[in-house]
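step=encode ok
step=design start
structure_in=
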């Protein structure tokens, strides 16, 4: 089966316990359906009343997002729910909802956690 024939599951990750659960679910689903997983963590420069705060450079925000994504993936891997699933790590700048919708445009499934 070629990669084009395989399904693709996009999962939003933000470092929260809820997103870790969503990632674990997506990995199990991917293992059951022979799909690939794209784990996506979005980051954006925080704003205050429409003004962009520039105290933290974008590179530092992106690096923090990469570290967060790596930590969540390591935690999910430690559970070994789906050891053979191919995972594409994506760290993308932008509003999380917009980023996830764009990343999932050609996916078979979009998985997100809940925000309590």
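sequence_out=
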């Amino acid at each position: 089966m070629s990669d084009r024939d395989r399904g693709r599951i996009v999962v939003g990750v933000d470092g929260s316990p809820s997103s870790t659960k969503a990632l674990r679910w997506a990995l199990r689903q991917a293992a059951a359906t022979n799909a690939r997983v794209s784990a996506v963590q979005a980051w954006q420069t925080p704003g205050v009343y429409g003004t962009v705060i520039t105290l933290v450079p974008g590179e530092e925000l992106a690096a923090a997002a990469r570290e967060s994504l790596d930590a969540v993936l390591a935690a999910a891997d430690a559970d070994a729910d789906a050891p053979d699933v191919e995972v594409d790590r994506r760290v993308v700048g932008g509003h999380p909802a917009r980023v996830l919708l764009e990343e999932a445009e050609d996916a078979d499934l979009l998985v997100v956690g809940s925000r309590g």
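step=design ok
step=annotate ok -> The chain has one domain: 8-111.
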